[in-house]
């Protein structure tokens, strides 16, 4: 592909091309394509103000609603180990406009803009070798959703996953929906009830349930409390194969796997329709196969006691080896972390 004058004139064309060629060269040099990569693939690094500026916000104001959404760059604070990050904030309103065609409001979201072109065509993220989408966030507990758009046949298709966090709040209506088949009087206060007692509402995929399901999320102990941990920051790992295909907010059939080789955009939305302000902080978003030793120093500095442990799969490189580490035997624990330990679970 030979860039035309208009194509080459696009802002950052040669920079994007150089960065992508450099990344691919490193992969080839390190032979990462021949085995499962252990290094993270950063997709959106909000420590860079330009990354924040490259995102766009959306809200129901486009149809006359009254919700607001902004995404701003927030500098870091070394004294509290707070990293530079993006602040996604605003207010949700369910007030309807004077337009009889609009029947529902109360949403806000952001996503990255089109990544543009490079020497070999449109630029996509290729996360095929990775198992998880990782997000380092500081949540206010509202029910956010992670949205991933790919270069699929149907452009309006979005793959979604609920962003469960340690601060995830479950509201009364979610419990009532989930327990409508239960005996009257079983529902107790949100503080006293054990979330595991109640399944997700029927017909709702686990990844989109209002109530955090067991084992859908890795790396976060979801509770109904609003405070937890030492810093408020946490790293959430969402399995790529748990994302649910939707279109205009509705789950569609047949379900298809997320096209990992051609991801166009990543964003976060809020559609809980609970009136009031929201505030979500995002440090970075990346593809990974688990927490590696190279990442653990930053992880512990930011997340404190809530830091994820080093993933055993990443630590061993997830490659077959005839060398046996000292103090271990050849038998792998069925509950071991990493690709081998979870492969049977993913294949179900």
UniProtKB/TrEMBL annotation:
Compositional bias ranges of the Low complexity kind: 209-230
Domain NADH:ubiquinone oxidoreductase intermediate-associated protein, residue spans: 45-168, 230-282
Disordered as annotated region, ranges: 203-230, 313-348
Biological processes, Gene Ontology terms: mitochondrial electron transport, NADH to ubiquinone; NADH dehydrogenase complex assembly
Cellular compartments annotated: Mitochondrion
Main location: mitochondrion
GO MF: unfolded protein binding
Top-level division of the source organism's lineage: Eukaryota
Pfam families (UniProt xref): CIA30
Protein name (record): NADH:ubiquinone oxidoreductase intermediate-associated protein 30 domain-containing protein
Family to which this protein belongs: Belongs to the CIA30 family.
PANTHER family: COMPLEX I INTERMEDIATE-ASSOCIATED PROTEIN 30, COMPLEX I INTERMEDIATE-ASSOCIATED PROTEIN 30, MITOCHONDRIAL
Keywords: Chaperone, Mitochondrion
Any single GO CC term annotated in Swiss-Prot or TrEMBL for this entry: mitochondrion
InterPro entries: Galactose-bd-like_sf, NADH-UbQ_OxRdtase-assoc_prot30, NDUFAF1
């Amino acid at each position: 592909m030979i860039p035309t004058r208009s194509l080459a004139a696009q802002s950052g064309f040669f920079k994007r091309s150089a960065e992508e060629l450099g990344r691919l060269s490193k992969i080839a040099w390190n032979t990462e394509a021949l085995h499962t990569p252990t290094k993270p693939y950063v997709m959106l690094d909000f420590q860079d103000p330009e990354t924040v500026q490259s995102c766009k916000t959306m809200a129901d104001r486009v149809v006359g609603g009254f919700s607001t959404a902004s995404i701003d760059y927030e500098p870091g604070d070394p004294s509290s180990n707070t990293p530079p990050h993006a602040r996604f904030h605003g207010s949700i309103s369910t007030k309807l406009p004077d337009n009889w065609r609009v029947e529902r409001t109360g949403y806000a979201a952001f996503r990255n803009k089109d990544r543009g072109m490079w020497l070999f065509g449109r630029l996509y993220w290729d996360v095929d070798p990775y198992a998880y989408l990782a997000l380092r966030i500081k949540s206010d507990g509202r029910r956010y959703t992670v949205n991933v758009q790919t270069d699929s046949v149907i452009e309006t298709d979005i793959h979604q996953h609920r962003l469960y966090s340690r601060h995830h709040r479950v509201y009364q209506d979610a419990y009532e929906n989930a327990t409508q088949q239960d005996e009257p009087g079983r529902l107790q206060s949100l503080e006293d009830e054990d979330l595991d007692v109640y399944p997700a509402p029927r017909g709702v995929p686990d990844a989109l349930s209002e109530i955090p399901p067991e084992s859908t999320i890795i790396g976060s102990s979801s509770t109904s409390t609003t405070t937890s941990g030492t810093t408020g920051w946490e790293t959430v790992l969402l399995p790529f194969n748990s994302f649910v295909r939707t279109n205009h907010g509705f789950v569609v059939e047949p379900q298809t796997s997320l096209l990992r080789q051609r991801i166009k955009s990543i964003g976060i939305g809020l559609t809980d329709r609970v009136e009031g302000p929201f505030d979500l902080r995002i440090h970075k978003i990346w593809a990974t196969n688990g927490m590696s030793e190279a990442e653990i120093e930053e992880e512990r500095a930011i997340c404190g006691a809530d830091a994820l442990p080093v993933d055993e799969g990443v630590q061993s490189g997830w490659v077959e080896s005839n060398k046996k580490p000292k103090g271990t035997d050849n038998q792998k624990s069925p509950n071991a972390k990493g690709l081998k330990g979870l492969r049977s679970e993913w294949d179900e």
